[in-house]
Design goal:
466 residues; mainly beta; Neuraminidase; Immunoglobulin-like; 2 domains; 4-stranded antiparallel β-sheet; 1 helix
Length: 466
């Protein structure tokens, strides 16, 4: 699979690389033996944590699996979309030991609904692989009228605030129009400050602070069932997989510079198509990707994923990967025009029941097959030019290096302009210098980049911050 490379470094004549190789995804078993895994998280180290829907969190540490937390007695997983659904570790987890979960408790709040709890727990003081089940602090409860569309994803943004994805309350077609009701937390993306207040506070820059018509916790509205959202660890952009009704599945994108307040359209729209126009207006944000829902056993339910920012697979870097739960078909999206255009790749159907994706601290991506309890590592089999390091006469050292470090330049020509780009050609840094050294920007995350002198053929630059 090839796509013409539209970035700055279009023409690499020495290698005849006038096309960018798109990823060719494959999957290798990482760990087996889980019961209905629905979320994967890391705590800022080499461990992976696997959330089981019934109320247990397992930890994989150096290849060994053990129980981190068992709260099955307070979790209700009586219906297929209920249970322990999400996990997020505090940005300062290494020092405070706090983590947060999204689950259905045993309180009935509707005809078939069980109340949502957003709670904080902490790790045991003397064992990093065991949490204290008695340490729960309930931050927020949200009544659920029906058993389905509970949302379930929870994550900290690059701003340090906790984001909470909530579904529209369930049934079919959002009969109470909760998603567009700004006095309801259902069908919303919420954003709260867990470091201040009792038990939380509202960030001062939330879009509806001071409003008498909209709950201040709301960051964005118009979601049906955001089954997995994530943040690009390099750019801070938010990606949301929102499950459709019966016609369209969609991916929503929020730029890192957004001030919030987006309305993603449900129930007025499903994808780009009108669904229920009652009480609607024209102030909606379109999805960046939709695909047709043809009903089981065809494509019928999106599972949102992550942007790959690891270092093992250069052609995969910068691609957002997601899948359809019903067919196991994988897709990737990447920004090929600096925010002005998207390119999508469709991988083959796999038949995996992908309930969730997860990201390791090193940027490697994983997914869970809920049917088999297997965790897979996503790999890329697309060819990488073995001699790409030789396409430039300029040498940079140390390479790999860390963001913020000084890099020495060794070449035999006069130079003045240094440019660093992503593999997709987006300019990330440019400077003018006559010195034989320059400082790598401090905001570069782990990954592979191109670096050029005077616009000549690029060399690869590897950033490894750990």
């Amino acid at each position: 699979m090839k796509h013409l490379y539209t970035g700055i470094i279009i023409f690499l004549s020495l290698l005849n690389l006038n096309a960018q190789t798109l990823p060719d995804l494959d999957f290798e078993i990482f760990k087996t033996g889980f019961n209905s895994p629905v979320s994967i998280a890391n705590a800022g180290d080499d461990r992976l944590f696997i959330v089981e829907q019934g109320g247990i969190i397992k930890v994989i540490d150096n290849g060994n699996t053990s129980t981190f937390l068992n709260i099955s007695s307070i979790v209700n997983d009586g219906q297929s979309e209920q249970g322990l659904l999400g996990l997020a570790f505090h940005p300062n987890y290494a020092t405070n030991g706090y983590f947060y979960i999204h689950y259905n408790n045993n309180t009935s709040t509707g005809s078939t609904g069980k109340q949502t709890s957003i709670s904080r727990f902490r790790v045991e003081e003397f064992n990093p692989n065991i949490a204290d089940p008695s340490s729960e602090l309930v931050l927020l409860t949200i009544d659920q009228p029906y058993w389905n569309h509970n949302g379930g994803c929870i994550d900290f943004g690059p701003d340090g605030y906790l984001y909470i994805g909530m579904g529209d309350g369930g049934s079919s077609g959002d009969p109470q129009n909760y998603s567009q009701n700004t006095q309801s937390m259902l069908g919303k993306m919420l954003r709260i400050d867990v470091d201040n207040g009792n038990p939380y506070s509202i960030p001062s820059d939330n879009p509806f602070v001071g409003s008498i018509n909209t709950l201040e916790e709301i960051w964005a509205i118009g979601l049906r069932n955001p089954w997995r959202f994530s943040f690009d660890k390099q750019t801070g952009d938010m990606w949301i997989g929102d499950v459709g009704q019966n016609a369209w599945e969609e991916i929503n994108f929020q730029d890192a510079n957004s001030s919030g307040g987006e309305n993603y359209g449900w129930r007025c729209y499903e994808g780009f198509a009108p669904f229920n126009s009652s009480g609607c207006n024209n102030s909606y944000v379109d999805p960046v990707q939709v695909y047709e829902n043809n009903g089981w056993p065809n494509d019928c339910s999106v599972t949102g994923g992550y942007v790959y920012r690891g270092t093992q697979f250069p052609n995969f870097v910068g691609h957002y990967v997601f899948t359809d739960y019903c067919t196991g078909k994988f897709f990737t999206i990447y920004d090929n025009l600096g925010g002005a255009g998207w390119t999508t790749t469709t991988q083959e159907d796999t038949q995996y029941g992908v309930s969730t994706f997860g990201e390791g601290n090193d940027g490697e991506l994983y997914f869970a097959d809920i049917n088999t309890g297997i965790i897979y590592h996503i790999i890329d089999n697309s060819p990488v030019a073995s001699n790409i390091l030789e396409i430039s006469k300029t040498e940079f050292y140390p390479n790999p290096t860390k963001a913020g470090n000084m890099v020495q330049i060794n070449n035999n020509i006069n130079f003045s302009e240094i440019t660093i780009t992503s593999l997709n050609g987006q300019v990330l840094y440019k400077c003018i210098t006559t010195e034989n050294a320059f400082q790598i920007p401090a905001n570069l995350s782990d990954g592979i980049y191109f670096i050029q002198v005077n616009g000549l053929n690029p060399n690869t630059l590897v950033i490894q911050n750990d």
